[in-house]
Amino acid sequence: MAKRPKMSFWQIWNMSFGFLGIQMGFALQNGNASRILTDFGADLEHLPLFWLVAPLTGLIVQPIIGHYSDHTWSKKFGRRKPFFFAGAVLAAIGLILLPRADFFVSFFPALVFGAAFLMLMDASFNVAMEPFRALVADKLPNEQRTSGFSIQTVIIGIGAVVGSFLPIILNKWFDVANTSLDGGVSPNVKISFFIGAVVLVGTILITIFTTKEFSPEEMESFEDTKEEKVPSTPNKGLLEIFIDFKNMPSTMKQLGWVQFFSWFGLFGMWVFTTSAVAHHIYGLPLTDTKSADYNNAADWVGLIFGVYNFVAAIFAFTLPRIAKKIGRKRTHSLSLIIGAVGLISMYVVPNENWLILSMTLIGVAWASILAMPYAILAGSIPAKKMGVYMGIFNFFIVIPQIINGLTSGYMVKYLYGGNPIFALITSGISFLIAAYMMKNVKDEEEIVPV
């Protein structure tokens, strides 16, 4: 049997380069979706409900895409490539239309179209993103998977930094207004989303033209192709997803709890940071969402979101070395604790500049969240089901976001007295629980240093 060939740094880089565009789009969404939706009339209490679009579409789309990409092969187009190309094109359309939803107000309120375009964008991001995780596991031998997912995290960080900084760069460097005369979405945000759409399609094409996928025969020939650890079943279409879910490996179940509390915390941070910073740090009333001061606060949030993504990109380079010394489990647990400190510290910082330190700590956790669980997971699942199990693993990402979205708005209103900063403290506590849950995870293909 053949040995799965190792890949060079630049081969891995090109294979994952499309993630730069995907994450640039995600960063634009994370930093500006709340801002856009409030411009269209959403209130703070109901804002998390609009953010449910992302996890709901991920819950449905990723396992289906994973299943069909596992069962797809074309000599001309490959296995994973057709899916992330189609997802990129549709996501680009969503990016262009979301901040321009008020163009359609003669048909329905802008908020309705904003939610619809957000759903299109999120569903398409999920179509594009899931096959990238599976592609890394397809192409790399186990000894390179930690490095592979870490390089992917570096690229994700670069894309997220660019996406986070872009609105404020356009405003400060190119004098593109960050407020709109007609009360709609500001020009710097609209232009940023258009640029994001172009970069998304361009980076995906680079991956498509530089990366060759293994044929089914080649996959079968590799000696490090994991034997099936779950009962083999005939191809039953989408029903097979539920059978695979029932038979998921124990490591995936253990990691599921870690993912649950990690992503519960992340969702709260993405939804409430803009309003928390504007209210708690800048002292602005929560109803003041269209003033220049509020938009300056929102721009600052975009910048500090860029900080945590920049730190993640840098820290990801060190993850393989740290994991080699103390083990992947300990690396991830420690990173989550550091991120928890960053989230909780946002309550006590004296001014907005100190938020850079908070986001630096959060960036450490973000780097590990994007790499370590997938590196551990890839060694526990069979190669023939890599796509569907990467999609099913997304359940443990989207379900906590759905729960957070359904409850956090009411918690802020009734439990936290309308102060969204306490939602960020809750996110920090959730990170600490995730770190504790790592002790129950079995990493099957790792020798833990003593």
What would you say this structure looks like, in words?
This protein has 450 residues and is mainly alpha-helical. It has one domain (9-207, 235-440): Growth Hormone, Chain: A. 72% of the residues lie in helices and 0% in strands. The protein is built from 17 helices and no strands. The chain has helices at residues 9-16, 18-39, 47-51, 53-70, 81-97, 110-139, 142-174, 187-210, 216-221, 239-246, 250-281, 292-326, 328-345, 355-378, 386-393, 395-415, 421-437. The model is unreliable at 228-232 (pLDDT under 50).
From the structure above, extract its key features.
0% strand, Growth Hormone, Chain: A, single chain, 72% helix
Topology, element by element:
Layout: H1 9-16, H2 18-39, H3 47-51, H4 53-70, H5 81-97, H6 110-139, H7 142-174, H8 187-210, H9 216-221, H10 239-246, H11 250-281, H12 292-326, H13 328-345, H14 355-378, H15 386-393, H16 395-415, H17 421-437
Oligomer: single chain
How many domains make up the 3D coordinates? 1
- Using DSSP, what is the number of strands? 0
User: Could you report the average pLDDT, rounded to the nearest whole number?
Assistant: 87
CA distance, first residue to last residue: 33 Å
Overall morphology? globular
* Main beta-sheet strand count, sense and barrel state: none
What share of residues are in beta strands?
under 5%
CATH class: Mainly Alpha
Count up the helices: 17
Estimate percent helicity.
over 70%
